[in-house]
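Reading a protein record of the kind used here takes only a little practice. The integers have meaning only within a learned vocabulary of local backbone shapes. With that in mind, consider the following protein and its fold in token form:
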Amino acid sequence: MIRLNVFISPEDINRSKVLDAAKELTTFSVKEDGCIAYDVYESATRANVLLICETWKDNEALDNHQKTAHFIKNIAILQEFSEIKLEKFDF
């Protein structure tokens, strides 16, 4: 399995746009084959920190996810309006 922790730091002015994109990404991603878990979290102490926590069955499922229209659309929004840090764990 693969776990991705995607830390997202939008500027205040873009926070709602980024959060909406992250929520849409979550809504569609949880329905994909090979998706074990996919959640978006908001920090309780820092308004400019969001986390997408994803778990995938294998690399093939993750690769297929990254080719979907909803991923391509929403990751472009996240990249344009926020800073992103990715942690990847294989287990």
